[in-house]
From TrEMBL:
Its EC number is 2.7.7.65. SUPFAM superfamilies: CheY-like, Nucleotide cyclase. It catalyses: 2 GTP = 3',3'-c-di-GMP + 2 diphosphate. PROSITE patterns: GGDEF, RESPONSE_REGULATORY. Residues 161-292 form the GGDEF domain. It is an enzyme of class 2 (transferase). GO terms for molecular function: diguanylate cyclase activity. One of its GO terms (biological process) is negative regulation of bacterial-type flagellum-dependent cell motility. Residues 2-118 form the Response regulatory domain. InterPro entries: CheY-like_superfamily, Diguanylate_Cyclase, GGDEF_dom, Nucleotide_cyclase, Rev_trsase/Diguanyl_cyclase, Sig_transdc_resp-reg_receiver. One of its GO terms (cellular component) is plasma membrane. It holds the Pfam family Response_reg. This is diguanylate cyclase.
Length: 292
């Protein structure tokens, strides 16, 4: 596991870091809650182990910050304490801590606590994947791709630069279902999803908007670059028919509409509406084509 440790006492920090590493974990250790918060914001940690009393930001304070900031991944927080008493325990729980380990640390107890943490983090991750994936295609589902669009627009507003949103719609897909049946239609949708993923770069995002419609987000995509990528996608779908059970193959094409967000004022709804208008134009102009 990737673990972030916050402990102001240098000796304790070294010992805890060494113990965790000896248990096979990847450890980053810092000397205060404030430094931990900064590190946590920069990177992705499944687990934070924090001392209780520290000068700038204490353990419960760190925990409150972590709980207040929405991140897609859950962070499991363990507070270290030599403090006794119900009041402290309750304030740790209230701050959002998941578990407590008392000092001095016992290696076996720590290892046992970590195995609980790993189980909980695994469950969270499984739930997160389940909640964000489209069952049929394995792509991001509608909610997740719209969340990604929001995040992408925030990033673009912060760092500047355009962001492109593509709407794809399979052409005459009703005809595929009517001719070959719904199950074959599903296989075709899965194959299209796979071709989309193979065509895109790892940092571009693709999701199923619904039915036979997909959304692609091109990070830092201007109109020219996005049109090129869209053209690659269009070709990847049209170039080869999809093999389906029974030895048949089904030819499909997609129409693609692109909208470019240029400023912080570009809201997700507006971009999607503009992409939809471009898509409508692609349909009206004969399908199997890209419009910006
Ligand atoms: P156009 O080129 O204008 O987009 O025509 P179209 O036939 O693709 O458009 P229409 O909206 O009339 O039909 C979309 C079809 O997609 C109808 C619906 O049954 C089918 N569809 C939606 N979701 C699924 C799915 O999950 N599986 C299958 N097999 N078909 C689906
Ligand atoms: Mg201390
Ligand atoms: Mg301390
Ligand atoms: Mg449609
Ligand atoms: Mg369609």
């Amino acid at each position: 596991m990737k673990i972030l440790v916050a402990e102001d006492d240098a000796t304790s920090r070294l010992v805890l870091g060494a113990t965790l590493r000896s248990l096979g974990h990847d450890v980053t250790a810092v000397e205060d809650g404030a430094a931990a918060l900064e590190a946590w914001r920069r990177d992705e940690y499944g687990l934070v182990i924090s001392d209780w009393l520290m000068p700038l930001l204490d353990g419960p304070g760190l925990c409150r910050h972590i709980r207040a900031e929405h991140r897609p991944h859950y962070t499991y927080v363990v507070l270290l304490t030599s403090l006794e008493g119900k009041g402290n325990y309750l304030s740790g729980i209230e701050a959002g801590a998941d578990d407590f380990v008392t000092k001095p640390l016992d290696r076996d107890v720590l290892a046992a606590r970590l195995s609980v943490a790993e189980r909980i983090i695994g469950l969270h991750e499984a739930l997160r994947v389940e909640a964000t994936r489209d069952r049929l295609t394995g792509l991001l589902n509608r909610g997740a791709i719209l969340d990604a669009l929001q995040r992408e627009l925030l990033r673009a507003a912060r760092e500047g630069g355009p962001t492109a949103t593509m709407l794809l719609d399979v052409d005459h897909f009703k005809h595929v279902n009517d001719t070959y049946g719904h199950l074959v239609g599903d296989i075709v949708l899965r194959e299209i999803a796979q071709r989309l993923q193979l065509t895109l770069r790892p940092y571009d995002r693709v999701g199923r908007f619904g039915g036979e419609e997909f959304i692609v987000l091109i990070t830092d995509g201007d109109a020219d670059q996005s049109a090129l990528i869209a053209e690659r996608i269009r070709t990847a779908v049209a170039a080869e028919p999809v093999d389906v059970p029974g030895g048949e193959s089904v030819s499909v094409t997609v129409s693609i509409g692109i909208a470019i967000g240029q400023s912080a004022a570009d809201a997700a709804d507006g971009l999607l509406a503009a992409a939809d208008i471009a898509l409508y134009r692609a349909k009206a102009n004969g399908r199997d084509r890209v419009e910006v």
